[in-house]
Amino acid sequence: MIPKHNSTLKEIWKLKIPPRMIIFLWRMLQNRIATVDTLRKRDWPMPSICYLCRNGEDSVQHLFNECRYTLQAKHSLFCYPHNLHLFQIDTTLLLLSKSPQAPVQTRELLAIMTFLIWRERCQRIFNEKHNNLHFQALVDQTILERDSYYARK
Ligand SMILES: [Zn+2]
Question: Where is the Reverse transcriptase zinc-binding domain (predicted)?
């Protein structure tokens, strides 16, 4: 699932998104973020349950490719620039794709959304945030982040 080749990973640095998001994606694409499934490999005694849907594992694969919340948001996001065919593609592959089928603007939106999903997951763990999740709020926030970053450039 996760490409390890640095030449492919370098694609991520070409995206026009805030540097803190690029650094997160760089680590995430190498499976170097502290999901519970990774911590458990180091004998961390914690149940691995998705903090977004409570119905899957806290892993890169689940959070960014399988989680119901992520899939709904991804579906809604790709309706927006009329790229619905991209919905089926694995998030990690799509982020690094150089295909004309996946324009850079689309990958930038997906990159921002991926970062925001991680931020939401962390807020749920560390700030004990329990309110209901609305995928459309995530999509709106993604577009807002992109627009405000472009406006500053
Ligand atoms: Zn989930």
Answer: 6-72
Higher pLDDT, 15 or 4: 15
Q: What is the pTM of this model?
A: 0.87
CA 2 to ligand 1 centroid distance, Å? 19
pLDDT(16) > 80: yes
CA of 112 from ligand 1 middle (Å) equals: 18
Identify the three-state secondary structure at position 120.
helix
Question: Taking the CB of residue 37, how many other CB atoms lie within 10 A of it?
Answer: 18
Q: What secondary structure does DSSP assign to 19-88, as a single string?
A: HHHHHHHHHHTTT-S--HHHHHTTT-------TTTSSS-SSHHIIIII-HHHHHHHHHHHHTTT-GGGGG
Would you say residue 132 has pLDDT above 70?
yes
Ligand 1 center from residue 82 Cα (angstroms) = 25
Could you tell me the pLDDT band of residue 2, with boundaries at 50, 70 and 90?
very low
Q: Give the Å distance between the CA of 81 and the centre of ligand 1.
A: 25
Look at residue 48 in the predicted model and tell me its pLDDT: 83
Measured in Å, residue 83 CA sits from the centre of ligand 1 at 23
Q: Token pair of 97, please?
A: 């794709």
